[in-house]
Amino acid sequence: MAFTVRPYSPADERSWLRCRVLAFLDTQYHDDVKQHRTSFTQPAVTLVAVIDDEDVVGLIDIEIDGPAATIDTVAVHPDHARRGIGTALLAAALPDAVAAGATTVDAWTREDPAANAWYTASGFVESERYLHVYKEHDEPTAGFATPVGLSAPVTAFMHAGISSETELRARFRRVHVCRRYVRRLTAATPR
């Protein structure tokens, strides 16, 4: 089924949200559910891939802060995966990012093999990494401090340095390596 890449419109929000939730469902970002699309304070490139001019099957949002651009979200509906939609969205978005002044674009992702392979194949290079650590309800609370009157945390999301990976994986079930990928942009960045 053919798709069209076009600018995001507020009328796309429900379909955008459904696409994002389903795209993340079987990834390590499965619980990063949004009820409303992100509002950007900086200039942004916001595109969707649609079929029948209404059903969002892919999306990309890139926020631009001077010469630095960051992919806030790139997602493809799982029923339409592996058809070049993500690559088409990136190719359409990058010239607009360059026109807005960006000279680099970065993105952060976890350990999902498909996402890491896509960034590498799309010309990105890993530049740094750290850990995302989740404390689940049934894991020990030792070492956590809270303000007076509050219980120890039931759940928690934390960042940690990569050097603590072995220790944290021994203590918590859900530890993810979060990687930053960077790609240099030029005026000749192809559309």
Q: How are the elements arranged and paired?
A:
Elements: E1 4-7, H1 13-24, E2 44-51, E3 55-65, E4 68-76, H2 85-99, E5 104-109, H3 113-121, E6 125-135, E7 156-160, H4 165-171, E8 174-184
Protein name: N-acetyltransferase
Keywords: Acyltransferase, Transferase
GO molecular function: acyltransferase activity, transferring groups other than amino-acyl groups
What does this entry look like structurally?
Keywords: Acyltransferase, Transferase. It comes from Promicromonospora citrea. This protein has 191 residues and is an alpha+beta fold. The protein has two domains: 4-102, Aminopeptidase, CATH 3.40.630.30; 130-175, no CATH class. The protein contains four helices and eight strands. It has helices at residues 13-24, 85-99, 113-121, 165-171, and strands at 4-7, 44-51, 55-65, 68-76, 104-109, 125-135, 156-160, 174-184. An eight-stranded mixed β-sheet has the order 1-2-3-4-5-8-6-7. Strand 3 (55-65) and strand 4 form a beta hairpin. It is globular.
Distinctive features:
single chain, 191 residues, alpha+beta, Aminopeptidase, eight-stranded mixed β-sheet, 8 strands, 23% helix, N-acetyltransferase, acyltransferase activity, transferring groups other than amino-acyl groups, Acyl_CoA_acyltransferase
